[in-house]
# Entry
Amino acid sequence: MAKNKLKVGVIGVGAIAHDRHLPYWKELEAEGRAEVIGVCDIIPERVEMIGEKFEVEKRYRSATVMLRNADYDIIDVCTQNRGHAPLTIQALESGANVLVEKPMAMNVKECREMIQAAKKAKRKLMVAQHQRFETRSEQIKEAIVRGDLGEIYYAHGQVLRRRGIPGWAKFHIKKESRGGPVIDIGVHVIDLAVWLMGCPKPIAASGKVYRMFGDRDDLCNAEWGENYTRKEFDVEDFASAFIRFQNNITMSVQVSWAANIPESVESLNILGDKAGATTIPPAIYGYGRDALTSTRFDWLPEQEGHRMEIRHFAECVGKNKPVRVKPEESLEIQKIIDAIYESSQKNREILIR
Ligand SMILES: NC(=O)c1ccc[n+]([C@@H]2O[C@H](COP(=O)([O-])OP(=O)(O)OC[C@H]3O[C@@H](n4cnc5c(N)ncnc54)[C@H](O)[C@@H]3O)[C@@H](O)[C@H]2O)c1
# Structure
């Protein structure tokens, strides 16, 4: 094995590892830049199936055994949310750099412990916010950095599914995931908006989360399948929130896994005094004295976000470069998420420190 090949291990080989992470690590393997030397899952048949399919010889049912048996350059944590912090910390302590799926963790306390562990081990840690790596996001980011939007003051994000409760894993169970659409899909749109706006510091959030019918036996979950047990559903299915940042910037956001709306929507608008931006389609909307202008970037070939994020992380580890999604930025996103849940429970705005 060439010396500069990164030794990679994946912990939690369910849907996202199978569909995105492993194919892209194998792509790097084919290029001679990495090698997947171990996979781990607590479900024995799953780890065997994945090992066969992706030709990974070492298959483990315990992360402790896996980390003891080899020195990994990179551990990719793809378990459900509950496993993110403990497995990340364990992997960092073993000497690996860690890419961990979103959300960073279940709460702010866990995020702080992960950052502490990365600092102590002097290893890289990055949360897999793949939307930051999509072409559309990069184009808008470039325009914002160039100053095309002028002074940014507001963002509005919506990720609303009419019937899209993810039922194949444990997203709908609070002790496994912490929450529903706020932490599952809200984390994407909030992270993207905050990154695009230059990471202003959040100072307060107000929100309301609702569990209106995700747990009802008569619910038709047509878009995403009928494969979850209704009585286990103990997270929210809808949420609306308002976030304040330093520099007079605000954001409103609405997310749902299931809502009685005409059709599912995904949108992010960012407003500046010179122009506004949307990410879907990627476009800038400005004005002159006599005209309104629209610049669309959707003719660009789209790059798959997970693919680019994995290539980026491998490059950062291989060449000792800083990661795009800094763990301190992910901590700020988790603060917002925690504040939305707390605000909903207490029925008031929560200050963020
Ligand atoms: N970036 C994205 O767009 C995106 C999309 C889907 C999921 N995700 C995230 O990826 C994570 C996994 O989601 P999924 O849909 O793949 O779930 P999944 O249930 O299909 O896969 C998770 C796997 O982790 C395994 N696991 C749990 N605890 C473990 C442990 N201690 N050691 C080893 N294996 C363990 C489970 O057995 C399961 O096979 C979630 O945190 C989710 O938020 C991200």
